[in-house]
Design brief:
Blueprint lengths: L4 E5 L6 E9 L3 H8 L12 E7 L5 E10 L10 E8 L1 H12 L4 E3 L4 H8 L5 H12 L3 H11 L2 H25 L7 H24 L3 H6 L1 E7 L5 H9 L17 E7 L2 E7 L9 H16 L2 E7 L16 E6 L6 H9 L3 E2 L8 H17 L9 H16 L6 H19 L5 H10 L5
Parallel strand pairs: 1-6, 7-9, 7-10, 10-11, 11-12
Antiparallel strand pairs: 1-2, 2-5, 3-4, 4-5, 8-9
């Protein structure tokens, strides 16, 4: 990280009522000195000042609010200045141009303010990625989980495991330094028990947090069914628009079509697929193959069938827990027939008449809610987290006292390093701190 002072427009590009231009670095106050008449020797942190903004040629550019956040009590941990100007393109461009003329000032790179916050220990990597998720959040549940991650929920969990492993490693390193002393049996049992508990906690976290990536990217709900079962009609009813082509001609849908929706705060991607049937037509066969591939990767499957002519299809290679059976075209059935379907746990709808859709959507939302709740609110939101946790478990599986203690210590060291990769905190000196801080070496 260089020592230059950076600046950037922090609000959206384009016309707006107010634009915020953020400046961070050791020379941030110099921007106030160069562009305003405010006395930087008497300026108070976290106070708003109303001032004229001028370039170095003395031309007035705007009237703005000026705020100063003194290091280390700022977002980046450095001195920060914010200029709240009017949001026209002309004003924004002229102020940015004036900042570019100040020595050692440069336009910030993408994510550089957050990167400096990380380097200055204002946040760890999970919190930085939580911030990115919050910026990208499109639903209320995405917003909720991003804020929770920003507040340090994942960091606290992973750092607690890492702290416990460092304690184990400290004991092992201490005995490595004194090879003439054998590890007492009670110490061996305590260390093995500690590693066992940590490993099981990580495995439980891995197994109960399958929905984290889906919370970020969208829970995929794949609609499967025979031709003319009403899959495309259901998509159009859900979106209240003609999102896909509807036709009585079998095989109209050839490829998978994704539709994004917000259901009770959860991001959902509905996928319309080709009708499932035996066919000799090559392109349609490819569409059917794609449908099955999508189903394997989907979070939920809507098994849709025409209740007036067909019965539910059976899918041997798809977990039953993922399948929601839905009977369509109930407008062609008697009330007694509908009741019999419902008694079998089948959701009954008419995509054409838009009946039963609320029940279907609530069922989907409840299913997703249960999946999310199984992770106790601590979801694995990044693939890299999952990989690092799996690597941690592998190293802990290798740990045992049947081999040389140096090799056992290396297993623990590598496991703690994998956890450190998630948060971004990897410090070898911490091991020494544990050794000297936990017990007396010079006995």
């Amino acid at each position: 990280m260089d020592n230059q002072t950076i600046y950037a427009l922090s609000t959206v590009q384009g016309r707006s009522g107010v634009a915020v231009i953020r400046i961070s670095g050791s020379s941030a106050l110099q921007a106030i000195n160069m562009l305003t008449d405010i006395n930087i020797k008497t300026i108070k942190p976290r106070y708003a000042y109303f001032a004229s903004i001028k370039n170095q040629q003395g031309q007035k550019l705007d009237e703005a609010l000026v705020l100063y956040f003194k290091a280390p009590n700022s977002f980046t941990g450095e001195d920060i200045v914010e200029l709240q100007t009017h949001g026209s393109r002309a004003v924004i461009n002229s102020v940015l141009s004036a900042l570019s003329e100040i020595d050692d000032f440069r336009y910030a790179l993408a994510g550089e303010f957050s990167k400096r916050a990380f380097y200055n220990h204002k946040m760890d990597l999970t919190q930085a990625e939580g911030l990115a998720d919050l910026i990208d959040a499109e639903t209320s549940e995405q917003q909720k989980f991003a804020i929770r991650q920003m507040e340090g929920s994942l960091r606290n969990l992973y750092e607690d495991w890492r702290e416990q492993l460092l304690q184990v490693l400290a004991h092992l390193e201490a005995y490595i330094d004194f090879p003439d002393e054998e590890l007492p049996q009670d110490v061996v049992e305590n260390l093995e028990n500690s590693v066992f508990k940590i490993k099981n906690a990580i495995l439980q976290h891995l197994n109960s947090s399958q929905s984290g990536e889906s919370m970020r990217d969208g829970f995929r709900v794949v609609i499967l069914g025979a031709p003319n079962s009403g899959k495309s009609s259901l998509i159009n009813t859900l979106t209240a628009r003609e999102a896909v082509i509807v036709s009585d001609i079998a095989g109209t849908t050839r490829d998978a079509v994704d539709i994004h929706m917000d259901i009770n705060g959860y991001p959902v991607i509905f996928t319309d697929t080709a009708g499932l049937r035996e066919t000799a037509e090559e392109i349609e066969q490819k569409g059917i193959a794609i449908a099955y591939d999508k189903a394997q990767d989907g979070d939920l499957i809507i098994s849709l069938f025409d209740a007036s002519t067909n019965t539910p299809q059976q899918f041997e290679n798809i977990a039953k827990s993922k399948i929601i059976v839905v009977a369509n075209k109930i407008d062609k059935l008697t009330s007694n027939q509908i009741e019999q379907l419902q008694q079998q746990g089948i959701i009954t709808i008419s995509a054409k008449q838009k009946t039963g859709i609320d029940v279907l959507l609530n069922t989907i939302a409840e299913n997703i809610k249960n999946r999310v709740a199984s992770g106790s609110g601590l979801l694995i939101t990044r693939h890299r987290y999952r990989e690092a946790l799996k690597n941690t478990v592998n190293y802990l599986n290798n740990f045992n006292f049947a081999k040389e203690i140096e090799l056992s210590a290396e297993d623990i060291r590598l496991a703690s390093r994998e956890l450190g990769k998630i948060t971004g905190f990897i410090e070898v000196d911490e091991i020494l701190d544990k050794i000297f801080g936990s017990f007396c070496i010079g006995k």
